[in-house]
Design brief:
The chain is of the alpha/beta class. The protein has 3 domains: 154 residues, Glycogen Phosphorylase B (Rossmann fold); 182 residues, Glycogen Phosphorylase B (Rossmann fold, 3-Layer(aba) Sandwich), CATH 3.40.50; 59 residues, no CATH class. It has a 6-stranded parallel beta sheet with strand order 3-2-1-4-5-6, with helices on both faces. A 6-stranded parallel beta sheet has the order 9-8-7-10-11-12, with helices on both faces. It has a 3-stranded antiparallel beta sheet with strand order 16-15-17, with no helix packed on it. The longest helix has 17 residues. The radius of gyration is 23 Å and the shape is globular. The termini are far apart.
Length: 448
């Protein structure tokens, strides 16, 4: 689809109703829009709890906070309070008379496509740009870039492709978080007080309130923190009360600096700029660390590192290379938002691996590429069957080869060995690449 050119003083609405990390992935696209249209009025529709992420961002003119489009099923939109506030937001958008609407979202669900279509129609904009998924969910888009699914491209690259439809091409892929001079002063004084002459390592064990299933174990973070303290670093724990910092502190032998709940988002960004190292999971704070250019180690479990993993020099992403990971946000499916109960992909990543990667970053080296933790090297010669063994012996889950005759007697998860497999809700679906391949819908075993 050909691109569009807007007038120099165009009114542009960018829609990014998401969490902190997702909003930060949109900052390169917003910067590209501003460079292409320096005199345009660029507004962003976003959730209230992410307003601080763009509060000082010079590429944006106005922020429109709203939590009233944060629903995952169409029936939720019919709740009176939600519908009334959503209507007021849509009326405000309609009165602005935008020239273009830029949707920085995957149209993965029917509810999502419906709400973004409603926003686009309310705006009366002649140009609506976004990602085009398979099927007809993107039929309300006037200009679209192909959506290859989660992880086909990094989220930053997707959003740059969307604004590129409006002529705002850019190779600048660095996320940004603007802070005030007052926050910089606070951070400088705080680092002097808590660290002195020691390098500062910042650890965030949480993953936000949306999904706790992507969190690495507190005792693992504690082991890494103790190793850093032994090396002579000052270790600060950051986050909110719900991020599990108290469990990490309780499991530690050393004494960390506890900054839980003691920083604003901008103060934390300024603090991260002065840190020697950051360690965390798949969270908004990890994206904030990437935007602050601190050397970092991020630990990914059920979510898609190809879509959200930090990229570039001095940024290390650790994940388990097992066939079921990632199981959340894969291709064009949301999958298991919270992962599975076993959390094998997280349990296979050890404190020793994280510590080695951290020490290499501190020494100014690129961490040596080591084999990703994996349960087994798998080949798929049909009609072989593979299964997870539901035993507590390490590793927590192991792939086993089974004969066809053994399947009915075993209360375990199993799959036919065909190329495509994915997870959906509390069951496993399997499909083949050809139309004649079998499709199975099998319940997961208890105790897994």
């Amino acid at each position: 689809m050909s691109g569009a050119t807007l007038p120099p003083n165009a009114k542009i609405l960018v829609v990014k109703l998401a969490d902190l990390g997702d909003v930060l992935t949109a900052t390169p696209a917003l910067r590209a829009l501003r460079r292409r249209y320096p005199h345009a009025e660029i507004d962003v529709l976003l959730t209230r709890h992410t307003v601080a992420a763009l509060a000082h961002f010079s590429a944006v003119d106005n922020l429109i906070p709203s939590d009233n489009f944060r629903f995952f099923a169409l029936r939720d939109a019919l709740k009176p309070a939600l519908a009334a506030e959503a209507w007021r937001t849509l009326r405000r958008i309609r009165q602005k008379k935008y020239d273009a609407v830029v949707i920085l979202h995957h149209l993965t669900t029917r509810a999502g496509a419906a709400k973004y279509a409603a926003i686009a129609r309310a705006s009366r904009a002649k140009i609506v740009a976004g990602l085009r998924p398979p099927g007809n969910r993107g039929r309300f888009l006037t200009h679209s870039a192909p959506d290859g699914g989660f992880g086909f491209r990094h989220e930053i690259d997707y959003w740059l492709a969307v604004v590129g439809l409006l002529g705002a091409a850019s190779d600048d892929r660095e996320m940004a978080m603007a802070v005030s001079p007052a926050d910089e002063t606070w951070a400088a004084e705080t680092v002097r007080t808590i660290a002195g002459n020691r390098p500062l390592a910042v650890i965030h064990p949480g993953s936000g309130g949306f999904s706790t299933g992507r969190r690495w174990a507190a005792e693992n973070f504690a082991a890494v923190a103790d190793a850093l303290i032994e090396r002579g670093l000052a270790v600060a724990l950051v986050g909110t009360a719900g991020d599990g910092t108290d469990a990490v502190r309780a499991a530690m032998a050393g004494n960390p600096i506890d900054l839980t709940g003691k920083t604003t988002l901008h103060q934390l960004a300024a603090l991260l700029r002065r840190a020697a190292l950051f360690i965390g999971g798949d969270s908004g704070v990890t994206h904030l660390a990437a935007a602050s250019s601190v050397p970092l180690v991020s630990i990914f479990g059920p979510t898609n590192a190809a879509a959200w993993g930090a990229r570039g020099a001095k940024r290390v992403v650790l994940r388990a290379d097992i066939p079921c990971a990632p199981c959340a946000y894969v291709e064009h499916s949301v999958g298991l938002r919270h992962g599975c109960a076993a959390k094998t992909c997280l349990k296979l990543i050890t404190p020793a691996q994280v510590t080695r990667a951290a020490f290499a970053l501190l020494e100014g080296e690129s961490p040596a590429a080591e084999p990703r933790p994996t349960a087994v090297a798998i080949a798929f010669p049909p009609p072989t069957f593979w299964a997870y063994d539901c035993t507590p012996s390490p590793p927590p889950m192991c792939w086993r080869r089974l004969s066809d005759s053994s399947l009915p007697e075993r209360r375990i998860k199993f799959a036919r060995s065909i190329p495509n497999l994915w997870w959906r809700h509390s069951a496993i679906w399997f499909s083949g690449k050809s139309s004649t391949a079998p499709r199975w819908h099998l319940p997961m075993a208890r105790g897994c």
